[in-house]
Amino acid sequence: MLDPLRPPGPCPAAVREGTSPISTPTTPRSVSRRRFLTYLVAAPALAVGAQLALDGEPAEALPGIPDVLDLGDALILAGLPTSHLLVLEVTSAGRVVLQLPRLEVGQGLTTAMAMLVADELGARLGDVDVPLAPARPELLFNQLTGASNSVRSLYDPVRAAAAAARARLVTAAARRWSLSAGSLRVQDSAVLAPDGRSASYASLAVEAAGVLVPAVPATPKPVSQQRLVGQATGRIDARDIVTGKAKYTGDLDIPGAVPTVVSRPPTINGTVRSYRADAALAMPGVLGVVRIPTGIAVLAETFDQAMKAKAGLDIDWGPGPLATLSDEDIRGRLRDAQPPFLVPPLLTQHVDAEFDFAFVSHAPMEVLTAVADVRADRAELWFGAQAPIVAQQAIAAELGLPLSAVTLHVVRGGGSFGRRLFFDAGLEAAQISKAAGRPVKLMWTRNDDVRHGRMRPASHHRIRATHALGQVLTYEHRVATVRTDFRHGLGEALTAAAFDLSVAGITLSQAFFLLTEKLPYELGLSTQLLAEVPLEMHTGSWRSVYSGLVRVADEIMVDELARTLGQDPAAFRRSRLSDAAGRAVLDRLVQAGDWGRAMPAGHAQGIAFHAEHRSSVAYLVELDATDRANPRVTKAVAVADVGRVINPRGLEAQLMGALMDGISVTLQAGVHIDKGAVREGSYADFRYARQRHSPPEFAVHLMPPSGSPGGAGELGVPAAAAAVANAWARATGTSPRSFPVNF
Q1: Of 71, 270, 556, 717, which has the highest C-beta tally within 10 A?
Q2: Domain membership of residue 204 as a residue range
């Protein structure tokens, strides 16, 4: 449905109107062959940016395998040329404002960034604001939220920007008092002198903006001096969220924007043959009916009136391209697409298994909503966008407007799980506004998104492991999935990071697969291959993308290999984990979760491990499967090593959310395809886990901080899902082969 344009080529750094940039390099220091530069923008208040640039070896010298360079590394490399456009302001009102070029969708990113700024700047956390930056094409690949990469990519640039601001504030205070800048210190949003004098950041902002060369090094503090980083901290927007002050797209009061809904076909990608709107137009409050490529839009004074009028439309629908296909047909195509195994099980014992994973809807709590005001010469839009630059480009092309005439305001989202990487609602809102000649507030219903939105593709897996004399000799994993749509800027980012896919002869999906999928165990000669089946349907990245499928199947197979070889599943994993950090995580989990304790009949423990995003995690769950139709996780323990943790409380919430995702898609939540139509339509039949499905006991243990931050947002899902599956197998005596198990 969408065909985003490629981002433009490199362009000069943008400077705020009426300002002039002056660059001042800080003292160089080695950080993975990179150096920091800081930029001062001479404005009425202090504004700085931070640049993270390559220093030395070119990107193409780095091998493209997860052990050395993973997807997050590639995205960081792609974003290096524009990281200096990250802007931090200290205003004369005493606010510290970081314009965040990422989307907040409930993952707590704004809190983590506020903590970094406050820590580095010596500011009170309550003085830091982290608004979401609008679409900024000059950022190129530096405004994509995904791949558990936000904290990893922003950690150093944000600290560098805050350090630059601190150096200039201290210099301004030293000049005011005629003191040595080295004798001053910062605390609670103020600069303090040895004699007791203090100057607030608000009072120093204007003077600091005039500092060209700071008198103290503009370098980030050593880790030993961080006071907020690593401390469990409540979300800075928690009160706003629970009191309704936080604004989502549906809460925005844009002048003239009228409630709008779309009538959509009964089958995926069905078409409108003809329609009559007389009855709908005659209904109370209806303001207009317009046709767009995806259906018929109804505009009204209220959403209730729009919904009622939508039901009054008379539409002759044409079938979609999948109208002859159902689940079994799709599974058949996936099985047929599987490449063969390389190693025949000759003269060795072997374990073979096949797995099927159903389609899964993202189903974020906040339904898709977008506001658009399209005029003849310009357009302005508001919605939650994980890839706002690509969205802005595609919408500008659709409207026939220059990119500079389209403004896209990024609005916080109420959940995403990868769904807001695509901007279906924003594109439709722009089309409707243009056709109707007025601003609109478009809302997708839950039914719209489940039946016509993005889904995690269904997949089929074949795995063969050969073994002899107690040792695993080979491990082959063959994956076939419905093709995942990655047209949200990822391909251009990989190209910018020196991955020329055309030369390599691989698809974008295969590149993503190669950069993310890693078997953490030594299992002899191991191979993993991906095959794709193209179907004309809307797919997209769902939590952990391929790992949420591949690694779940792997971890089930590891349990089965352990049983086949007569070994304890935890001990089997530990003996084959290839790195000490992973073994430490597993050891901590075995101890904290009391692995191996006696369980009643129909109850069992399950364990699983996953490493990705420069992080690792292991889950242990206890499952009550005495009622197989309604199994219940009664206890869960997670242990994670994510390098340096910014906010432990936020990380714990992420790992809890991952557990609920794992429970859902392993036990009960999936989407059926019946003759080209999605059967499910709401939470009533897309059976995502509810509060009653959450374990009464849940504990998170974090390993001691070390090095730079790793990724955590998607880390937990594969291990959580696999641990639930392994507990099911041990509790029921039947290893699951199709997911969800109750489908």
Answers
A1: 717
A2: 31-241
